[in-house]
Specification:
Layout (H helix, E strand, L loop, with lengths): L2 H62 L4 H35 L28 H8 L1 H20 L10 H5 L6 H9 L1
Helix pairs in contact: 1-2, 1-4
């Protein structure tokens, strides 16, 4: 068997795994951006309704003589600003949706994604951060690849080099004789 072939296959598997994990992380990030933009869109739609009602009531109060024109104009400006903000977030929703569809591999297809439009609540219990850095380092795929390559190179080199001289052996293996320890000498002397 060719150990080099096994090493190359292992490296290819690790590289593909790394690419899959990176794509998965990127897709997850874009999914949350899409979901967040949907939540902001929902909020802005509610704000737009409130601003529209406020502008309408300001017009009625102005016509009734109970409100100054400056206040009416101010409320209309808030309404118009809300319209522009809604247009911006609608464009962001579409952009995030397109990126998500592309990353999921459905590019070019008309999909109706069903996504909950609110992000999950922040957990009440905080995550333990004591060993988070060590865990992150242990899970890094690039360090794993480096470690596996190093092992493979060491194995390859070990097979091509005679390492007998570097391995310490006991004296009795070298001479074939068994040395008696000090305690054994005392025990035989006392007998």
């Amino acid at each position: 068997a060719n150990p080099q072939g096994g090493i190359v296959k292992q490296e290819a598997k690790i590289h593909i795994s790394k690419e899959i994990l990176e794509l998965s992380a990127k897709t997850k990030s874009v999914f949350f951006k899409y979901q967040a933009s949907l939540q902001v869109e929902l909020m802005l739609r509610n704000m737009l309704k409130a601003a529209e009602l406020s502008a309408e009531s300001a017009n009625r109060l102005l016509n009734a003589g109970s409100l100054r024109e400056l206040e009416t104009v101010s409320r209309k400006a808030v309404h118009e600003q809300s319209v522009f903000e809604l247009y911006d977030i609608e464009a962001e929703v579409l952009t995030n949706r397109e990126r998500l569809v592309f990353l999921m591999g459905f590019g070019g297809r008309d999909l109706s994604l069903k996504v909950v439009s609110t992000l999950p609540r922040i957990p009440d219990k905080e995550v333990e951060l004591n060993d988070l850095e060590n865990l992150a380092i242990m899970k890094r795929i690039d360090l794993f690849i480096f470690k596996e390559r190093t092992k493979a190179l060491a194995q390859k080199n070990a097979e091509s080099i005679e390492w007998e001289w570097a391995i310490p052996r006991k004296e009795e293996e070298k001479t074939g004789e068994k040395k008696t320890s000090q305690s054994e000498k005392r025990n035989t002397h006392l007998s």
